[in-house]
Give the backbone structure.
Amino acid sequence: MKKITRRDFNTTLVKGIGASALVANAPIACAMGTSQERKKLGIALVGLGGYSTYQLAPALLDTQHCYLAGIVTGTPQKENLWATKYSIPQKNIYNYENFDAIKDNKEIDVVYVVLPNAMHADFSIRAAKAGKHVICEKPMAMNVEECDAIIAACIKNNVKLGIGYRLHSEPYTQEVKRFVKEKTFGKIRYISADAGYYSGSNPGQWRLDKKLSGGGALVNMGVYAIQSLIYGTGENPISVSAQEYSTRPEYFKDTDETITAQFEFKSGVVGTIMTSHNVSANRLHAKCERGWFELDPASTYIPLAGRTSRGPLNFKQESQQKLQMDDFAKHILFDAPNLVPGEMGKRDMMLVEAIYKSISEGGKKQTLNFAPKFGFGG
Ligand code: NAD
């Protein structure tokens, strides 16, 4: 268990922790001197674009175990706006150049990297070197080599690493994982997942610039479909074959528009994915020995919906980002399992690379050699 010393505590406390959590985390409770007070971790968001503005920052107003303590932005005009809206003191505001000084800021425990993909590795590694825990958005990095460098930096600096796959904290997804674990519908025989959206007409965006994105639909949305296949079967695949389609080459000049891929799994399950920046699709469907289960939508952050051959699923809807960041904070504070470890981001990047390789070889089947649970979270 990571022990938190008195020096580590900042002034923000959270009240009303359940008795069982306190027993499990006795050193923390003792350090506090009271059984009813507990530190909230301070998070700094790096990159104040759409995802930070409309999802993460609002979610951090509701989180139980962490709060928005700081920001890192390359746009000075955003500083006052955010400082006022979220009561962020000037000393907790950084830009990309002075970011490394964050190491001396005791109010920041976690750095959440929410930048274009090409900047993930640089800022995650700098955050780790500053001694801060790291959440890195998906896709984890531009390639497997960068994923390895992030993981190594976090190990070397003894900080925790999580990837921004919010669905692992989300109840419909957790129910799918339960179906798989308990074999509710028997063995799974076939699974398919689609993840895409119509990218419209905005050719200047960084997601269409390979230098900043590392790829197109596959790295942006395809990772959700890959994830669906893996938590929807409970297995890593043993092979993949893939195809790429382009219907608007004049728009998708630099990055992939639509990709399909077929996977084999050791247990005999066959899986397919479709990912696109030209087709709106968001679905997971599994055919099993004794029925089927489905999520549609399966990976949006508007409410998910699901049904099975036995009837509809119905779970309370809460901010997925709130649940995700609280789960990561619990991992740090209470040694709860890391639901989305760095290895998961690396595994998905290995699959992305295998898919691109298959496409470049005319759809040739790529053999995969993952350990059975490599990249699985707790
Ligand atoms: P965005 O374009 O809305 O914001 C990008 C931010 O990065 C902006 O604040 C921009 O100023 C800054 N930036 C710094 N250097 C830049 C450069 N060279 N080019 C462009 N922007 C630059 O993007 P976003 O939707 O917030 O996505 C950011 C990251 O979050 C991406 O990695 C994306 O995949 C991820 N994301 C994850 C989810 C999720 O559900 N987990 C959802 C959306 C985005």
